[in-house]
Design brief:
167 residues, mainly beta, 5-stranded mixed beta sheet, 13% helix
């Protein structure tokens, strides 16, 4: 009985994800209406990332996927240690989403795990993440919602070491 319930629950979850992938935005925002990916103001590095539904063809067949700023993997976000990261995540998909900043030391409310540390980013909404970067190294960011990471919502997050020349 437990196996049957588990199989049924997993099947329903799968079909919900597939159904969500096939929904298209009623009025997608043209790329020209998007804010620039990167701007800098003093030690504030500001990114605008847009979560979108898309399709891919890796095997000769079109398949639903998800992209950030139209690419899989997502654009690499680069900072310098000591910067303040200001990241606007614009969810243009027809379902909620999330972005988790994997391995970063930051306030818990910006961690990006839906329903645990951060409210999910609802369809059509924008969420602001703003935190100081107190480390350096190569990390990654990805969705923590359903199978969105596996569908394409992931990218590199690089924090360059602060040097005398960067002061």
């Amino acid at each position: 009985m437990k196996k049957l319930v588990l199989i049924l629950a997993l099947s329903l979850s799968y079909f919900n994800v597939v159904a969500q992938h096939h929904k298209m935005a009623s009025a997608p925002i043209p790329r020209s209406k998007h804010l620039p990916l990167l701007t800098k103001h003093g030690n504030h590095t500001i990114y605008h990332i847009y979560l979108n539904d898309t399709t891919v063809n890796y095997t000769g067949k079109q398949r639903p996927a998800m992209a950030i700023n139209g690419t899989i993997p997502a654009p690499t976000l680069e900072f310098t240690e000591g910067d303040t990261a200001v990241i606007y995540v614009h969810n243009e998909m027809m379902m909620e989403a999330s972005i988790h900043w994997h391995g970063l030391i930051l306030p818990n409310r910006y961690d990006g795990v839906s329903y645990l540390t951060t409210t999910p980013i609802e369809a059509g909404q924008t969420h602001l993440f703003k935190f100081a970067l107190v480390q350096h190294g190569t990390y990654w960011y990805h969705s923590h919602t359903m199978t969105q990471q596996q569908s394409g919502l992931y990218g590199a997050f690089i924090i360059h070491e602060k040097t005398i020349a960067n002061n």
